[in-house]
Structures are given as C-alpha cells and as structure tokens.
Amino acid sequence: MPLVAPRVIAVAGASTSGNAQGNTFLRQLEEAGFDGTVVVIHPSATSVDGYAAVPSLADVPETVDYAYVAVPSRSVPALIASGAGRVRFAQVISSGFGEGDGVGVDLANELLRVARETGTRIVGPNSLGTHSPRGGMSFVGGASAPDGTISVASQSGGLSVDMIRRGRSLGLDFRSVVSVGNALDVDPIELAEYYLADPGTTAIGLYLEYLPDGRRFVDLLRRSAGTKPIVVLKGGLTAQGNRAAASHTGAAATDERLWRGLARQFGITLVETMDEYLHSLLAFQDLARAPRANARDVVLLGNGGGVSVLAADQFARADLAVPPVSDELLRAAETIPFPPGASVLNPIDLPAGVFASEGGALCESLLRLVLERDAPGGIVVHLNLGAMLQGPVYLAGFRGFLTAALPMLREHRDQSLPVLVLNSDGSAEADELRRSLTSEAREWRIPVVTGFAGAIRILSTLYEHESRMLHTEATTSVG
C-alpha cells in the first residue's frame, strides 16, 4: 500500500522560514531514513529545506504516492483537486472539518467530493501522520526503529504519539501506525482489513472512538477469528467518555455493552487503558505461540517477601493461580546450598544476599529446576533494582543471574510464558540500570514491565487468547 511504503512524497505546508508543520515533517523524513523522492508544494519558492519546490501538485513530474497536507483547511479541497488524480493518498493534518463544534461540515463534504472525483484517498483530516519504519517515514521525532510486526490504526493523533514513544520504550516494534483523525475517507476498519491480509503483520491494534460501519467491522472480526489477534482500546465507553469522543472527532461513540458482547463473541482483546493496550500488543509480539490448554498457573521468583505476598494477591484477583511448587522440585532444591532466608515455595522469595551468592549461580540453578521440573504456564521473575545497587557484589550477582536466566527463559517460553518485572525506587541510578537491563532482555525477546499489573496483563491476554483459539478449533472440528 503506497500509504505505508511510498516512493514519491509531496509536502504541502512547509515554509522558507523553516518553522511550519511541513518543515517538521521534512526533518522527520530525514530522521526516519526515507530514500525516495520528496517534493515541496510552495506558491513561490523553488527550494525549501534543500528539497525542490513546485507551485502545485499538478507540477510534480511523477505520480505522488503520499501527500502530507498541513495547510489552512479552506485551501485543502483545491489543493487536492490540483493533483488531478495523480495523488494516491493525501494525509490531511489540518483541522476544521466539522470536529468539535461542527463548524466545517460543508468543507468536509467538499473535500470528500473532490477526493471521489480525483480518486485520491484521504487520510484524516485532523490527523497527525503515518509511522512506517519500512517506508522510512514517521510523524514522531526520534522514533526511528526496525520494521516490526504490530500494525495500528488510531482515531487519536496524540495517542498515536504515545503509542509509538511508550511502545518503543517497552520494546514494541511497529510495522505501521496510522493516525486517521476524523476518518472522512480511509477509516480504521479499512486499515484493519489491509493489516489482516498483510503477511508482515502478526497482531493488530486499534484505538477507536466510534465505528464508521458496524457491519464491516463485525465481518472483519469474523474473518480474523483464529488468525490474527486484534487489540482494541475503546474510547467513549461511558456516557462521559462518549461526550468527550463526540467533541474530539465529531462522531458519536457506541454502547459499552455492545463492545463487551463483541469481545466475547469474536475474541478480540478489549482494553481500557494505554498500559493494558501496549502490554497486550507486547504479549502478542514476543510470546505468541501455538495455543495449548495450559492451566493459568504462575511461578513468582524474585527478591522481597512483602512484594511477593502483594503480588500473589494481585495474581489471585486476576484469576491467575500461584500454586505451591511440586514435592519433586522441593526435593531437588534441597541440593542447592542456599544461605538462610531463602524460601523455595511459590512465591519463591530469594533475598538479595541469595542472589549475590556465587555470582547468582544458586538462583540460576533454582530457576532451571522450576522450568524443567514444574514447567508452569507462566514464570514471572521480579527484581528490586534498589537491592541490586547496594554494592558491587549484589550487582554482580543479580547480573550473573540474569545473564544465565534470559536465554533459559527464552528456551522454555513455549511451555512457560516469561515476564521480567523490574521494580525501580525512582532514583536516577535505578532508572539507568532498568534501561540497561531492559535492553539486555529485549535481545532475547523477553517482555519487561515495571510492575506486576503489566505482567498480569501480558499473561492474561495470552491465556485468554489461547483459550478462545482452542474453543474455535474445537467448534470447527465438531462442525
């Protein structure tokens, strides 16, 4: 699709002063490594920021795959018309097309009429842009990243920026993120249909405030069942949120009961917060596997007795069991010379001094026993970064343990879904250590979160998805 992999880009809304929104986009193209043709649309200049400039889209010598349009709203229809059908996609950043107070509805209708006459597809208006690592383009500065497998369509530009920035810090590699704004023409459902057929996309994320076509969406969900997971962050589920959504995009949201019903019937992952959304996508990116009828059992292994108790409560409330380890494992663990203070029950509580013993080798041996003897459905390793910073011996022990644990967790992940929880005390030293350890874990594709809520979301998302997949397979085989 030229929208996410253009070769010729036109930019309308860049100035010779270098301060306009179009100039920012030109810089973002350079950062993202776009290597195609870029032409600036400017009424008088022949060059802007080192790029050739022409007066109108009609003067671009090649067919334009993607036009970035950030000019006053009243000028947009005429600009699109000047392309005379030689512009495939135009992403309209400009607002003023009926969102909020409804002023500009006539202008929106005029833009849609011009788009249909010329054959140009409109993304927006009131959008922010398209992020596509493989296309060498982004609307977020400093967001250059490898081509990933997660594709997103969002009805909020600001949340799209949050998805990209926060997603990158978690280790999410996006294939594309498209901000659709008011979705006058190209809407999230059409993009999701494209993602469903795209072999490079393994999971689909949607931020929706309203449904432009309920029948098409249900058909999409029906076709996606048993293939690619879909995570939906739905804005406007409550009456208050509904009013806010109407003021944002100019369209009415839909009833919460409808969405709950769709989630149950078609197996979409419906979430309510950005944290849940990103953690669910991270689960599908890093830990997707062939579905299996695992029990929802989890082993918690880390340092901190009180933390372990509170974590066990959190997991229980999420219907995730933290059962005692097996007698076989207890007998095998007796051969490990733990110093006083270690508890190998579940939660497995290993004080910082135990991690420091023998460079982390004792804890490594216990983790191996857990994975090989009990093979739980999930394994959550949680580490207190403040404890790691008590001294060089502690830091070396924790690091020695992680160096051995990460490949081990990856090796066993098809049986025991792994999550690493790094608890920071908020100090600069702890946060720097967290970033370093996160980077190491990302090399092994082990999800890293900063609290147990993220670990619960990751494991629950996958368990529920696998349960739905198994139910679908059983229903299909019976039929």
Automatic annotation (TrEMBL):
Q: Where is the CoA-binding domain?
A: 3-97
Name the SUPFAM superfamilies on file. NAD(P)-binding Rossmann-fold domains, Succinyl-CoA synthetase domains
- Give the matching InterPro entries: CoA-bd, NAD(P)-bd_dom_sf, Succ_CoA_lig_flav_dom, Succinyl-CoA_synth-like
Protein name from the UniProt record: CoA-binding domain-containing protein
